[in-house]
Please model this.
Amino acid sequence: MYALAPPLWGGPGSAGRYWDLLHTLVARAIKQRYKRSVLGFAWTMLNPLMTMAILTTVFSAVFASSLPSYPLFVIIGLLAWNLFALGSTQGLSSVVDSGPLIRKVAVPKAIFPIAAVAANLVNFLLSLVPLLAIVLVFRVRITWAVLWVPFGVVLIGAFTLGTALLLATVNVFFRDVRYFYEAALLALFYATPVFYPIEILPPAAYAVLRWNPMHVLVDVFRLPLYSGAAPPWTTLAIAGGEAAAMLAIGLAVFRRYETRFVDYV
Amino acid sequence: MSERPQPAPEPRIGVDRLSVRFDLQRERVMSVREYLIRRLHGERFPSETFWPLRDVSFTVGAGESFGIVGRNGAGKSTLLKVIAGIVPPTHGGVVVRGRLSPLLELGAGFDPELTGRENIQLYGCLLGFRRKHLEARTTAIAEFAELTGFLDVPLKNYSSGMAARLAFAIATDSDPDILIVDEVLSVGDAQFQRKCEERLARFHARGVTVLLVTHNMELLEATCSRALLLERGAMVVMGRPVEVAARYQRGGSR
Model:
């Protein structure tokens, strides 16, 4: 007996089919993004570079003294932030956007938020090449600590996916959650040390903001590239714990409600 | 068509006391604000339920062709959607043994911005085909759909008939064990319809189990060995197609 999907998406060989469908959906998302613009892939890098230029112009007088190579500090943080922000925002609407499909084809529904996050992850990985060039321009020494970078990417990806699964579920039942999330995302951006060092926070603010998961997740990715230092073990442990917890929550909520999606999308 | 044997002991499709409930009031999308206000006012959410399927049971054996008839809104499409795994059962359950190929809502996964070739990949993967397999079959699929010169044209430039032909060609380009057909035989022009019927007849001859929803009583009697009449979600009569068709044409139980 099955309640959700025929053996096609549960029986033997379904992992391969799932992978192929994911591959197709991700390829489509990336193609769509680049087909519409003349600059294509260049936008992936231009957008954070422009934000970096603005933030640097505005804040370098304030932060540059405590942060050498301030633009580099900003761009690394921005790329990590964008992976989370874009992945979770696109993941949020992914299930509702696929409503016609969900009502007509037996398809594992989690594939839509997974594809949204995966497409942004591919984009992010492509942007690491120009990032590496910028790192070299600033003559930052590449050390063995750089081996922590993939770990940071995995953690941010997992945290983003958990958030996307959770938000996609809520969005099926409450369509205005997107507006709440956009506001929350803006607040979270300022609560995350993307363009400022965490040390400038007054102790009271730090006591609260240190619980912002994105703070440690950005650190795990940024420290090895910016300072050439391995992230402290406490940071790694907290980041790992938070990413795993978010993914578990997102998966649990999604699986709890996905059978009801078809009546609402 | 000759008399078919009774269903085998191991049925391909088993539907067991299946009921599906739609909650008309609750299953409406709300805004967070609306929800909170109604909660604060202590408002209950009155449920207005509707049962598109009530206590439906039947089995379909290997190689059997089973017809489902009923007026619009009788629950036929919901029944097919439950068997295809799209709509979850509220009570009871469904067992499907073997590879199922649903010919419902043909082309539901098409993306008009993508080319015919890319849509073969997309729709094929949604139906559970492997990418490699689809790549190898692209030419044959296009040939059957009579779209050989149009593979690299975006689907938005296809006529609806061309898109329907492509969808049918993809969905039937395999060896399914079970075929679910919801009046899709009206695809394309007369010539293409003949091709579709030939392909379905070949499946039938190969022992594929067919579940057919139709309003065409001639087709029902010609192709099915057993049939079921649904009325407002409930079973009215199940048995030989001739009897079921007669009952349907009399206007069900009234």
Q: What stands out?
A: The longest helix of chain A spans residues 70-97. Confidence is low (pLDDT under 50) at residues 1-6 of chain A. The two ends of chain A are 25 Å apart (CA to CA). The CA atoms of residues 191 and 205 of chain A lie 9 Å apart.
